[in-house]
Specification:
By secondary structure, the protein is of the alpha+beta class. The relative contact order is 0.20. The strands form two sheets. It has a three-stranded mixed sheet, with no helix packed on it. The protein has a two-stranded antiparallel sheet with strand order 3-4. It is 42% helix and 21% strand. The longest helix has 16 residues, at 75-90. The protein has five helices and five strands. It has a single domain (2-108), classed as Rossmann fold. It has helices at 11-19, 22-29, 41-47, 65-70, 75-90; strands at residues 2-4, 34-38, 50-55, 58-64, 107-108.
């Protein structure tokens, strides 16, 4: 099992080396079991079988990538995705999608 954590300080490095690398996608296609923590929702949607949305250290929503990322049931999940997608369109800053409320958020693949 591989684990990747994505924090504000590591975001640029992880995007360049891991997330945008063909390695992670290749491992996923080959059936490698991975636990990936990321704010990269496009990557999660592409490679994840299951997605868990975390807020305040708790899993508040869990399901297929399609269900959680495209039709979330929980208001906090919808709010986070709206925030991330809005910031991605408005800025190219590497901190886009970072949340300033002091809680850990993310998706697992």
């Amino acid at each position: 099992m591989a684990t990747v954590g994505c924090t504000r300080g590591a975001t640029q490095f992880l995007r360049a080396v891991i997330i945008r690398s063909p390695l992670m996608r290749t491992l996923a296609r080959e059936g490698m079991t991975m636990l990936v923590v990321t704010h990269e929702m496009g990557f999660a949607r592409e490679v994840a079988d299951r997605v868990c949305f975390l807020h305040g250290g708790l899993i508040i929503e869990e399901g297929s990538a399609q269900q959680v990322l495209c039709s979330p049931r929980e208001p906090r999940t919808r709010e986070f995705l709206r925030h991330v997608l809005t910031n991605r369109m408005e800025t190219t800053d590497d901190s886009a999608g970072a949340n300033n409320d002091g809680h850990a958020h993310g998706a697992t693949a």
